[in-house]
Amino acid sequence: MSNKEKVGSYKFIAEPFHVDFKGKLTFGVLGNHFLNCAGFHAADRGFGISELNEENYTWVLSRLAIEMIDMPNQNEAFTVQTWVENVYRLFTDRNFAVLNQDGEPIGYARSVWAMINMNTRKPVDLLSIHGGNIADYVDDKECPIEKHSRIKVAAQEMVDMSIARYCDIDINGHVNSIRYIEHILNLFPLQFYEVMRVRRFEIAYIAEARYGDELKFYKEEVSPVEYHVEVRRNGEEVICRGKVLFE
Amino acid sequence: MSNKEKVGSYKFIAEPFHVDFKGKLTFGVLGNHFLNCAGFHAADRGFGISELNEENYTWVLSRLAIEMIDMPNQNEAFTVQTWVENVYRLFTDRNFAVLNQDGEPIGYARSVWAMINMNTRKPVDLLSIHGGNIADYVDDKECPIEKHSRIKVAAQEMVDMSIARYCDIDINGHVNSIRYIEHILNLFPLQFYEVMRVRRFEIAYIAEARYGDELKFYKEEVSPVEYHVEVRRNGEEVICRGKVLFE
Fold first, then answer.
1. Is residue B242 part of a domain?
2. DSSP characters over A148-217
3. Given an 8 Å threshold on Cβ–Cβ distance, is A17 in contact with B212?
4. Which of A43, A207, B44, B115 is 20 to 30 A from B153, comparing alpha carbons?
5. ∠ CA A173-B168-B16 to the nearest 5 degrees?
6. CA-based nearest distance B208→chain A, Å
7. Do A173 and B36 touch (CB under 8 A)?
8. C-alpha angle B193/B194/B196, rounded to 5°?
9. Total structural domains in chain A?
10. Size of interface A-B (CB pairs under 8 A)
């Protein structure tokens, strides 16, 4: 077993083009940082994408829930911590904490990942990889936000449509996970963000969209501060579901 | 005069969500790095946005031309260098070089900036600021790419339309400069990028778009490898013009 710390810690600055009109870091950029930190942390412990790819395995993000009491301001330093909370046969839970420039926690996130065989697209037994030593990295650091919820969207009326284009497509040929976060937040008018802020953002990735796919967005108002969104390919197959809680 | 080096040098890694389907860093992300480096370099020399804002001044990007013989691959380290080539009364020319992980140049960029008074929105005489010491930072490092050209777009047929939304708006309340780069590159089908790559990307920023503005895109094919694009607010006022050269 490596002697690496179980909790990885990575420093960032909130760049000018990574903040919104209020000067606050965006959820899309923060989500991107989380995914990068997950990659760094896994790679440093022998479970990085490049090592896995040699065995034709890769990580797939299944769920992400982010809850923030504040967001870094433009040009502010902040730290993302990440650690593994649980490892099961087919999933692993990875958590994140965001610390402001004074080192105080301003938010947390939970994510769920699966590993798949890139040839068969079938899930891999995580406990069979590297003799199951992924379990040695589990840490009991506290993550005081709720687990992912089940997101149900009954809405039948489409509120937006978008066609997947060049800049949306990642190296795997799929629409990149971060784009959905931006698309979903773009469904709300600026006036929402003027008087409220997003406290919790949750997303469940169900299927992959590809270049040229017509993504249709269905939005349901559960309450004036809670919205559920479903993204459907050509209005049928569900690609992902999101939940946005304002305050 | 400060004893800072005239050429600033900044290291980056091509992150997984910052590369396209070919695994190459995108022009949008590279442009964002350029603008950040410009900010770091200026701030270190007393001409940063935050110092300027105290005097109610700010920098405005007027033109950007990027020419690349290659792009960093996913997870590769690269370096952005930046320096001031010229300072005139109303404009300054800032150049960039991109070095690959072996320290070899793989591309260059030229940018033109003005300084404005945020109250009057009028240009500021650059040689009057800090006793004109911005001129002390001029460096004659070579930038072996062509200067900006004049971009003319006669096309009257709209090829795309986009409404400026929450995630497009920066801290100044304007559509952020990088979004236009992505929008323009999204006007070309993936098949273009499969068989060609962008050698040169040029953009001239004319006016600012705001939340809710309807941005209409007009594209002109000058040759099978050269395209000019004009972005017009509500199909009338010109917001920016771009030129894309493939090879």
1. yes
2. P--------SEEEEEE--GGGB-TTSBB-HHHHHHHHHTTS-HHHHHH--EEEEEEEE-S--BTT-EEEE
3. no
4. B115
5. 30
6. 14
7. no
8. 55
9. 2
10. 99
Of A93, A106, A28, give the one whose Cα is nearest residue A67: A106
Which of these, B135, B212, B205, lies nearest to B177 by C-alpha position? B205
pLDDT digit string, tens, across residues A15-35? 999 999 999 999 999 999 999
Residue B146 lies inside a defined structural domain of this protein: no
Does B174 lie in the same domain as B98? no
- Judge whether B190 and A211 are in contact, CB under 8 Å: yes
A173 and A122 assigned to the same domain: no
Amino acid identity at B165: R
How far is Cα A175 from Cα A146, in angstroms, rounded to an integer? 27
Burial class (CB in 10 A: 0-12, 13-18, 19+), B7: middle
Domain housing B39: 8-137
How far from chain centre, in Å, is Cα A95? 11
Nearest CA to A32 among A235, A181, A178? Answer: A178
Contact of A152 with chain B, judged by CB distance below 8 Å, is answered with: no
| Within a domain: B128 | yes
Domain annotation covers residue B199: yes
Nearest to A178 among B17, B39, B177 (CB): B17
Q: Are residues A202 and A124 in the same domain?
A: no
Examine the domain organization and report whether B35 and B126 are in the same domain: yes
ipTM, two decimals: 0.92
- Condensed to tens digits (0 to 9), the pLDDT of residues B56-100 reads 999 999 999 999 999 999 999 999 999 999 999 999 999 999 999
What SS3 state is found at A105? strand
Contact assignment for B169 to A21 by CB distance below 8 Å: yes
CA–CA gap between residue B77 and residue B25 (Å, rounded): 11
CATH of residue A242's domain is: 3.10.129.10
